[in-house]
Amino acid sequence: MSTSGQVQSRFQTSIDIVRRQAYHIAPVAGQKRPPTEPREPTEQVPNIPPLGPVVKQATFPRQNVNPDTILESAPLQSTRDLLTAPLHRFTASNINPGAGVGAEPPPDDHQKAVAATAPPSSQNPLLSLSNPKYGLPPALTANFAALGVRNIYPWQASCLLARGLLSGERHLVYTAPTGGGKSLVADVLLLKRIIENPGRKALLVLPYVALVQEKLKWMRRIVQDVDRNIPDDGDDKFPRRQWNKLHKNIRVTGFFGGSRTTATWADTDIAVCTIEKANSLINSAIEECSIGDLGVVVLDELHMLDDEHRGYLLELMVTKLLLLQKDIQIVGMSATLSNTEMLAQWMNAKFYISTYRPIPIDEYLVYENGIYPAATSRQLFQTASKLTAAASLHDTIPPHRIIEPSTFKQLSNSATNAMVALAVETAAAGFGSLVFCGSRNACQIHAATIGEAMPPAEAEELNKRLDLIAELRSLACGLDPALETTIIKGTGFHNAGMTTEERELIAQAYDQGVIKVLVATCSLAAGVNLPARRVIINGARMGRELVGPAMLRQMCGRAGRKGKDDAGETYLICVKADMQAVCDLLDADMPAIESCLAPEKRGLKRALLEAVATGLVSGCEAIKEYVRCTLLYRTLDKKLAYTIMRSALQELVDEELLIFGDDEFYEATPLGQAVVASAFSPEDGLFVHEELKRALQAFVMDGDMHIFYMFTPLQAAMDTPIDWQIFRDQLDRLDESGLRALQFVGVQPGFVNTMVQSGASLKETNPTQIKQARIYRRAYTAFQLRDLSNEIPLSTIAQRYQIPRGTVQTLAQQCHGFAAGIVKFCQRMNWGMMAAVLDHMRDRLEAGARADLLEMAQVTFVKSWTARLLMENGFRNLRALAEAEPKDLVPVLMMANPRKAQKSQLYPTEAERYTAKVMAKAETIIAHAIKIWEREMQIEIEE
Questions:
Q1: Is the pLDDT of residue 56 over 50?
Q2: Residues 371-397: what's their mean pLDDT?
């Protein structure tokens, strides 16, 4: 045999290795059935090509599946049509071995080498969380074990046992690869601090709502049945406030935009929150002198420090905590930090850097149907450089694998052909793959394209997909037809244009193996924890921009995850036009984290205003000390930092947010106090102040349009493109009161007509034009808020304004926090009547309902649609709901979700389970209604 032949037979991907083992199609993406489990003789498996050096997947013969035996009553005829239609219109291309020589060992040897670096806990007792050195209670270690965390990695043990960390005496900044277990270190430090110090609280800060919700569920499961060390009343070692009752159990609360929680700082022990909510909580605690209750702050995704929109808030939080010099431990972590040591110096923290990944990742570059492996980014860059200069590609640099060109028109593009071939190959082996692409529209197109080439599913698998389609159809927003056509074929898409409920169901289905291929935008890499056996990056651009090194690392980091896979692969598909850019990207170092308080980013003004308004500083020397605690001071020339500080202070004085007294102390004006209390930036606060002042002169009270305009979030409005034809149509439908309100705020129908006729866009080149653009964008977005509060379905609103349903839902969530800020602003300015009027409308916005439903919409599980059904079926107020019997509510609740009720009737056991579930829901509704009713009666008696 020739040398090249030996190389060909030696080179294998992890998928090749899997094909040499006896596997079932896995019920969960990335998991195989035990090797000892026998295969049922009747089980049909999609045709897997003969084992050998050539991976064949040219055909997947359709199985003889009767759709009537899959689900006796398919939800809609369209779903039946999908089942009886051919499952694919074309087939994925074959992937054959090439002649390239790889320098790295085969994947199986490489995995063994990496795995050998992690000794079992029997050899190293410090790798067990129950080791006395960690001081964790048995109930907590049992919860960790129940969730699959029985042992820790050597780097985690080394980090935790560093001097001063477990005792809470030192701060920590650390970095570890995605999937390397970095969150566990912070969890242990946070929980130990809270359990051993029962009077202290914890903040766990994450950048995205999806991450907050995921972590909230995890944390509640971890602390279940775990008690804190509450001392005896006579124990002088733990002085306690008599008026502050200590709870033995650990209360975990989520604070994020769109959350309906009524919990406060006093009601929680662990607050899992977004960056904005965390900053507001810290401001309130400083102002109320309760900041001493805070014991630990965990900052996940610390690289967000240099995010141009939100990074300055993280820096503000850390700066305030460093200045206080309280006994508060700060823990910061990220997978993409390059200047960890400098950040640790700023925070006076210990720093730790880990490069360990329990699951190795094999990286590949795909170019013109050739697959080129590289063990590191440097080797990948060298490969890309050679490819750019190559005159004859395959002759100059022989690929290790070759994707055959497709004869199908839909796959004539080599990048699309490669994407489909790689995704289908993974699915055929029973594993999940993530495909990242550059836009929301591309997600849908690529998911549909891959679906046309997917292997056929077994009856059980099809049943699960039909269940998923039924779940999506039962949502208030209905079923997206594009999702329906892809799901039935085993693919799906995930992007910000989808609603939260849609994204959750799709992510869950992918995690359970119902969907084999998930096509997503890059936001999924940062915002959702979904690992994959194979990650396919279809092009190095997200939108028009090239992805940065940090985002590329995050996307690649989704490949392979401990407990799900024993290997991971990433494929970067590159087109010729981007080759040089890819070369530069792959060779680029991770960018250093920089301060967002720099003058061009205007964050220092807010930092100074918040510090003065909360009483943290006031004198000139104290303000200088505050500035010395910033990352800005650490990274800039010291004289320049003080110059920027003085300039920012003078601007705040000129804008009447601060006053500088004769005693040379700064003090916040009522306007400055209102801006900080409302969590607005100085610029947004001044704009809101001007709008509210004008409204006080002539508030349009005979309609709702003026209030909807005032409650429209500034950022959401600025991100909304205006369709001028739709704008004019909505203006034409307004009554006299609504039109008068919009004209009062500055909207001119004549200008809207001009924009429709000219097809021009708003100019925003000077302050006057920027102000005008804000007014028109807010007015346009206010129409959507009006429709939401009038119980118009979300899908109808999305169709009316030609925007994604997820955008409408995000607006609804953002307006809750903004409306609360507006009300608080009015209260701080002593505009009591204005605050009362706005507060009533805020309740309507949160309920998404008209005024007659507000009382019942307070109750858990009762949203606008359910409240309307209850009212129409005789439960006309809160008292009637409180006095109801659970069995009387069950039929109404089933009417609120007819698809689930219809589906449950098909199967007796399912019907029993569903009825029991609805009965439990009815009991919860009545119990909460009774609680609210009793509270209201008590208030009436006291008055």
A1: no
A2: 59
